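Marked as duplicate of an earlier ticket. Keeping the data here for the record.
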Amino acid sequence: DCLLWTRSRYPGTIKKRLCQLYKETEKEMNEIGINLNAGKTEYIVVKYGYQKEDKKEKFEKLLKDAGVDAKRSKEIKYLGVMIEESGKWNAAAREARNKGKRAWGAASWILKRKELNEKLKCRLYKQTIRPGMMYGSEVWRKVSKFERDKLEVLERRILRTMLRIGRKENGHSV
């Protein structure tokens, strides 16, 4: 995978620099025998603030004029993290939550066993399930409160199930 990233306060500068980067990358890759697959090439315009639709159309026209044959996406997965057009990282948080659910599903038969003590269960949880859920969270920029809450709810649900604690234990919410 190859990611070309540029930013500027001036949209014209971004467009020119991105086209220049694309051509340079394509040339260098061709020199070492790697061809860019035009069918798999995608681009994303990350919006930080309000952008008019006509600017997007101008950008697409500029790319086509420069010989860049790419399709526009609303989100792109790069190095295991989803990057969204909106500038938010909700897709990454959703994917992390799903990874946590899958890891819990695979390990729950062990972690629900009565024979294991709580300390060992917590250690297994911290070493197997939590890393999968939190992978990449350091780079998530803007994650909605809804997505953050859903991750916390999943974590509490897993811990309650694993430790056999009810939703209201001794009159207190857990």
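See parent ticket for discussion. The mean pLDDT is 77.
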